[in-house]
């Protein structure tokens, strides 16, 4: 095989691999965990009044969580949510005790625009990382993406990066969607392993 032929063959193969739809990644495929049609596949913790309405799972009374039965180590979560201005919600990741969820035994990625202590408002990881940007989420649909790989975690809200941090307290566990106050709606919650 001539050198020119070998170089041409490599370039053709690289071009073929880069063809749209042929990208191979180390990431797993997306798995939809909540589609806004049912609570199937989630453990309910607490007394929040979760219900299904208009393509979303919502709560507006009580206090509680929807918890995945499966644990995750390295992952990316993408979730669509709608909250009232006074809502207190969030996504807790790597929960070490899925029956007693708190910011002490997991990472709390906050959704709380009017939090009294604004240091850990929407987009923050409570007691770990303050948000780099202020994003207000009340009264509209929003998208939150959380990536956790080893100790490195990033959070984006509506495409704006709010957290990029490393922390080693919690390495693995389920994740939970929180209801604390106001009205909270979730739809299109999906996860993939990294």
Task: Estimate the global geometry from the Cα principal axes.
Answer: globular
Q: How many DSSP helices?
A: 1
The overall strand count is 13
Biggest β-sheet strands, sense, barrel: 8 strands, antiparallel
**CATH class value:** Mainly Beta
Q: What portion of the residues fall into strands of 2 or more residues?
A: 35-45%
The rounded Rg comes to 19 Å
Q: How far apart are the first and last residues' alpha carbons, in Å?
A: 39 Å
Kindly report the name of the CATH homologous superfamily.
Exo-inulinase, domain 1
- What would the CATH topology be? Jelly Rolls
**If you average the pLDDT, what whole number results?**
90
Shape-level CATH architecture? Sandwich
Topology pattern, helix = H, strand = E: HEEEEEEEEEEEEE
Amount of helix = under 10%
Unreliable spans? 5-25
What structural category do the secondary elements indicate? mainly beta
The figure for the number of domains is 1
Account of the protein in words:
With 194 residues, the protein is mainly beta. The protein has a single domain (25-193), classed as Sandwich (Jelly Rolls), CATH 2.60.120.560. The chain contains 1 helix and 13 strands, in the order αβββββββββββββ. Strands 1, 3, 4, 6, 9, 10, 11 and 13 form an 8-stranded antiparallel beta sheet that branches. Strands 2-5-12-7-8 form a 5-stranded antiparallel beta sheet, with no helix packed on it. The longest helix has 15 residues, at 3-17. The chain is globular. The two termini are 39 Å apart. Mean pLDDT is 90; it is low at 5-25.
């Amino acid at each position: 095989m001539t050198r020119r032929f070998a170089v041409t063959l490599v370039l053709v193969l690289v071009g073929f691999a880069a063809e749209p739809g042929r990208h191979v990644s180390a990431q797993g495929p997306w798995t939809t965990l909540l589609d806004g049609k049912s609570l199937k596949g989630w453990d309910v913790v607490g007394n929040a009044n979760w219900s299904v309405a208009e393509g979303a799972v919502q709560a507006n009374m009580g206090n509680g969580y929807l918890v995945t039965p499966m644990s995750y180590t390295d992952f990316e979560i993408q979730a669509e949510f709608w909250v009232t201005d006074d809502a207190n919600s969030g996504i807790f990741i790597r929960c070490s005790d899925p029956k007693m969820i708190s910011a002490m035994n997991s990472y709390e990625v906050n959704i709380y625009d009017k939090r009294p202590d604004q240091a850990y408002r929407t987009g923050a990881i409570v007691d770990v990382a303050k948000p780099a940007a202020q994003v207000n989420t009340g009264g509209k649909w929003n998208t939150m993406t959380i990536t956790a790989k080893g100790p490195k975690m990033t959070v984006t809200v509506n495409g704006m990066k709010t957290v990029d941090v490393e922390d080693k307290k919690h390495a693995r566990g389920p994740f939970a969607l929180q209801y604390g106050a106001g009205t909270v709606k979730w739809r299109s919650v999906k996860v993939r392993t990294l």
